[in-house]
Every structure is written in C-alpha cells, then in structure tokens.
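writing this on my phone so excuse typos. first protein, seq and then structure
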Amino acid sequence: MDRRDFIRGLAATGTICAVPTRGGAVAPVSDPALAAFIRGMPKSEYHVHLEGTLEAEMKFALARRNGMNLPFADVAAMKASYVYNDLPSFLAIYYDGMKVLQKEQDFHDLAYAYLAKAAAQNVIYAEMFFDPQEHLKRGVAMADVIGGITRARREAERQLGIRSQLILCFVRDLTAESAMAALDAALPFKADLVGVGLDSDEAGHPPEKFREHFAKARANGLKVTAHCDVDQADTLKNIRTALTDLQVDRIDHGGNIVQSPELVAIARARGITFTVCPTFSGTLRRTEKVPVDVVRAMMDAGLNVTISSDDPAYMGSEYIDDVLIRAAERSSLTRAELVTIARNGFAAAWLPAADKAAMLARLEAYVKQA
C-alpha cells in the first residue's frame, strides 16, 4: 500500500444515515432523507483546525516514522484519553497531540487526509486554520509547515477537486511577540495564505492584544478573523472590539452575540459571517438560566451562520456531514435553512466574486434536482 492509499484509507469515515457519538456508538438519524440531502449537498468549511484533524491512527503512523514513542498502548487507549470539560482542558490535549508533526511530509499528510475526508463529504471549498507558533517553538521551520500543507492543497485540488486556502492563527495565550515572529516568518509565503486568525484560550487575551498583528496582515493583503468562544469572560466586550474596533472580516464561534441586540444589529449591517461549530460550542449555558441553542438563536436573529467541524479528531471524529446532521436535529433546521447555511458559506469565501458565483451555482443546481 503506498502513502496515498494509506491516507485515503484514513479518510474513509462514517456510515450513511448514521451519526457516530463521542462514545463510539452510533445514533440513528430520525430523518434519513434529510441526512441524504445533507450528504449530497455541495458545501464549504471555514472553521477547521488542521492540527485538530490529526486522528489517533495518523499520530501513531507519524510517531513511528519520526522515531517517537507515544504514551499509549494503542489507538483505543489514545482516544480514551480525550476527556475534557472546558476549553483549557481541551487545549492541553490538543497541543500535546501535535508534537508528532515534525517534518514537511507530516504536514502534507495531515492536510491531505483532511481534504480527502472533506472531499468525500462533498466539501468543494475549505479555508483551514493552522497554529505555526506551536511548531516553531519545537524547532520546525515555517517553510516545512506551510510548504507541506500547500503541496497537499495543490494535490487535493488536482486529484480530488476540492479547492482550499490557508489561515494562519495566532495562539492568543502565547506572547504577542511570538505571534509577531510567526507572522514575520510566514510573510515570505503570503502567496500561500489567505488570512490570519486568532484562536486558543481567550481568558486574559482580548482581541486588541493583536491589533498590530492584524494591521500588518492587512497591509500585506491578508484577511482577518477572530475566535470569540462562547461563555468566556468579557465575551460581549471582545465581540464588540472585534466587530467595531478591529473590523474583522469574520468571527469564529461568537454565539454570545445573541445576548446583545445592539451587536446583532452591527453584525447584520456589516454582513459579518459567523463560523459556528455546534459540536463544541453549540449551547450557551454559563450565561443563561435556561440553555440556549446557538445555531437556532443565531439563525432566528438573522445572522449569517455557517457550520463547521472545528477539531473533529478530538470530537468523536465527526466531520462536516455528521456535524450538519446533528445540528439539523438539535436546532430543528429545515431543508431551506440548511441551504441558507450552505449559501452563507459560499458567499463568505475569501475568493473572487466569479469563483463564489460558480460555487453557488453548483449548490443551486443540486437543490433544484434534489
């Protein structure tokens, strides 16, 4: 079996009309026709962290290739260790897992594996996050990180028909200086980037910490987005800063905005798109007496919502189809609303207008014949 066959084998996921639960069981889909419609629909994805698609099987493969020993007996033991109850506990697992990414080929294989999974689920366009600070501090060269991912992107477009772009994320709980160093190291490769983002632990690290970084990125022709995770301290203040002060082009998560009619009105006036990941942040709990479903509330508020898988390798290996099916059931999404979400996605692409129109046309053709 050659390398490409190995990666494609890892890309085979899921059973049609079934949703895997986090515990590994299979939950029946109450509306198989709607599930089939979702699976066949052309899609985009904007909130997916490449390092968060690093499945346990690939971790073991990369560890063997790089001569590393992992502290787990097997894949099942590794997956059983993915236990978290908040963002910090999740991030500890997430950052530890990416240590197996050592060489250019590792980043290629990681990106190709995700793109193969996405293409198999009719994703025709994706904008993917990556966290270079975590790799640079281990001595991995930026050229190897971006080079491997870019090579995979080109191969996947040619071989699988999925188009993609790359967003450099600043790890907000590391220093502003390390973020600027990562940006400076990446700018020689800016032709392979479409934007910069802001992820990791928001507590104590508001968006304005990265004002200079965003300004430099924009000066170099890059778009800007920022995570505003749900139910965080000062979350509405941070959403306001991102929207009105830093003038971000998109917001990732951002569900708490529904608690502020003023901010909703600003986001609607600016046409801001929100990349919502209901698997991890689909409910407002800490700030509400009664839990609020984020997707339903944002849709009802008239916001531009897209749905993505976030870090699927750590979230029950639920990629975009399963995430959409689960969201449709939990948030009572109609077929028309699912189409609206898909339209929002293509309209939000950081692409020329003609390219977005072509993708929207593919969606409309599918809806017409489905």
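second protein below, same order as before
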Amino acid sequence: MAALDQGRAQAAAFRRERDVWRTVVAVLQHLLIYALLLAGAVLFTAPWAWMVVASLQDVSDMFRWPPSWIPVNPSLDNYARFLRTQHLGRMFFNSGYCAVAVTSLQLFFNSLAAYTFAKRRFPGRDFIFLMMLSTFMIPGQVTQIPSYLILMHMPLFGGNNLLGQGGHGWLDSYWGLIAPGAVSTYGIFLLRQYMKTIPDELLDAARIDGASEFRLYAQVVLPLTTPALAAMGIFTFTYVWNDFFWPLIIISSPSLRTLPLGLALFVVAHRTVWDLVMAGSVVATLPVLLLFLLFQRHFVRGIALSGLR
C-alpha cells in the first residue's frame, strides 16, 4: 500500500512538473510571438512616424545627426506653407474623384464577375477563371504601353475620328485616369474566394421563391460579402490615391494633376523642398488612414475569411 501511495505521489509530482514546463513553454512562445509582432510594428510604423516628426521641424533640424524623434522646435509652418500651394484644392479633388470613381466601379464590376465565377455554372467557367488568374504573372509595366496606345486611339474622343486618328483620345482626361482601373483581377479573385463560403442552399431557397439572378446578387450575396467588399475597397482606394506613375504618363494639363503629381512639383532645380514634401505627405495619408480606421473591423474580417476556400 505504501509503495502504491508513493507511486501515485511520484506520478502527481511528474504531472505537476510537466504542467509547469508546458506553461513555461507556452509563455515563452507567446513572448516570442509578441516580440516579433512588436518588431514588425516598429519596422513598418517608424518611417511614417519619422515623417510626421520631420514635418514639424525645419530642414536644418530634419537632417541633424543623430536624428531626433522629438522635435526640438515643433512648428506648423510647413503645413501652413503647403496648404498655400497653388491649385492644391484641385489636386485633392482630382485624387479623390479618381479614387472614388475607380473604387465604385471595381466594387460593382468585380463583385458581379466574382458572383458569376463563384455561384454560376457555365461551360469553360474554370478555364476562363484560370486564364484570368494567369495575368497575375504579367508585370503591370508591360501592359502600360498597350493601354496608352488604346487610350490614345479611342474613337470619337479627344479630337479622334471614327478610326481613332487625329487627336489624343482619352489621354489627358479623367477617362484615361479612371477607365483602365475599372476592373481588377485581384479584386475578382478576392471576392470570389469569399463568395465561395456562402452556402448554395441559401441561393437555392431564394430561387425557389422566384428571385432572379441579379436579385440574388444584389440582395443576398452582396450584403453577406460586406467584409470582403470593404477590404477590396480600401485596397483600391489606397492604390489609386497614391498612384504616381500612371497619372504621370497620361496627364499633361495642370488642372488634372493628382496629389502625388503635385508633391513631385516640390523638386525644383535638382533640389527637393523636404519640409513641404513631408508636410504634404502627412496630409496626403490622412484620407487613407481615416478610411482604414472606419472600416478596420470589416477589413480584417474580409482578409481573414477570403482564403478559407
């Protein structure tokens, strides 16, 4: 009996020691994960934080070594000078108008195509979707020259005749800024993956009640796809708002310049006016930051669930 009690005591001590080690390992794993997340957060937020700090300093203080993360003489003079920039309101309007237009078009066309690929059955559906995904392997720079030529020879626009000759077409216009981004392969893929998680039985029940396909899309599928739509909307708005290269190619009129092109104007005679660039960059990031904060919950949920199937 004593031997049995001793064995039980040893087993209990072993289990306690094992539980202690498991707790220690779990705590160490959590500490390692949080340390990596903290390092990643610092790595990605430090440039933006330094930009905000630099926007509050004079150029002489901005490039002082060692750099100071706390402004020595903080001032809003850089913002005041930036806000007095000529045509600044027009540049904000152009960026906002193009970003909202492209985002709205992509939300409609991408979701419509995603519904077709996710919930409709027709011959060649999977092959067409596979061919569409293959465009991911084509760099965007490769398609910019063909896109430029197509816009330039758009018939009956910008002085062109019926054959697309004689004028500039959709170049140097809102059409040229908006139309090429109306549909996105990535957006279709993202929404399709999310729509695949919607039960087909729900749609079949609506069909039995007499709902048309477009009504299924608009009143059943879209409300359930709100998180993925929010994620895609944030991606699209951010990309168009910050896009510099495509507007640089097709825009020549000062009245059509977007905000990134306006920031490039502060490079004068091989000299960059860094104080105004920093202040302008902070102002330019505020709409995107506000958009993300407003839809953060939907954004995270949409990204998390879009890859389930």
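The chain has a mean pLDDT of 84. thats all i got for now
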